[in-house]
Amino acid sequence: MIHTDIHNVENPSGKPTDLQVAIHVGQRLLDSDNVLSLQEALRLLLRALGAEPDAASAVDEPPAVEAIPVGSGCGVPAAVCIEGYSPRDGLAHGSLDHTVYACAGHTADARADWLSGYTTYTCTGTPEGRRCGERFDYTTLGGGQ
After folding, report:
1. C or N: which end of the chain has fewer Cβ atoms within 10 Å?
2. How many CB atoms lie within 10 A of CB 99?
3. Would the pTM of this model clear 0.85, i.e. be above it?
């Protein structure tokens, strides 16, 4: 691990340099899986080294993405929430085990394939902020998304 001592002979003011800040941020984000945080850390490092790209050319830019796929879904905003139940104590809707979110085009897939083997129930209302293919597994501690 690289240590960045901001109080040294080369930096008597104690104010961290851009490179020291970039190294500090990079060290904190080594185990991160947050892409935006990692991009920001890389941007800080490139700026500190004076190596920022001038401007992204059209060739370098990825194509526009309407939605990012999630699991078996397409990633567009979900239109429905569907719950999957296991039988328990003689009831078909005995144990809520899974919840999946689907767009209108994937509702049938969600009921037939994603929740195959479960008794399904479609919730009323539009699931705010959810994407097609997102799911929650109630059988695992923490949801197992």
Report:
1. N
2. 20
3. no
Sign, CA torsion 47/50/54/59: negative
Q: Are 26 and 3 in contact (CB under 8 A)?
A: no
Count Cβ neighbours within 10 Å for each residue of 53-65 and write b for 16 or more, e otherwise: eeeeeeeeeeeee
CB-based contacts of 79, cutoff 8 Å, min separation 6: 102, 103, 104, 107, 126, 127, 132
Give 20-51 pLDDT, tens digit per residue.
Answer: 777 777 777 677 666 666 677 777 777 777 77
Q: Which long-range contacts (CB under 8 A, 24 or more apart) does 134-142 make?
A: 134/70, 134/71, 134/73, 134/78, 134/100, 134/101, 135/71, 135/98, 135/99, 135/100, 135/101, 136/98, 136/99, 136/100, 137/97, 137/98, 138/96, 138/97, 138/98, 138/99, 139/97, 139/98
CA distance 73 to 145: 13
Q: Kind and range of the H or E element at 102?
A: strand 91-102
